From TrEMBL:
Signal peptide: none annotated. Belongs to the adrenodoxin/putidaredoxin family. This is Ferredoxin, 2Fe-2S. PROSITE patterns: 2FE2S_FER_2.
Amino acid sequence: MVQVTFVDVNGVERRVDGGSEDQSLMELAKANGIDGIAADCGGACSCATCLVHIDPDWTERTGQPDDIEFAMLDMVADVATVSSRLACQIRLSGALDGLRVVVAQQ
């Protein structure tokens, strides 16, 4: 099981235990009612409504966006930062146990 700390769009920090290695960060957020994760496309990387900012200590472990995700991030460049990722594109793994992300204001 993977533990993730989310800071939602209201600034409320919430630790979520129980993420499984077969789900995305977006799926974990949706399953736990994290404010600000709309996930309109359901995880198809065709919107940016699951935009999060990765804590700097975790950016290397979450990796870099691929070309498709980068194109989606470019569409929300006004709120994206160098540490931004789409939560639907981050697969949970044991290496991400303890991850901390901030949900982007959109």
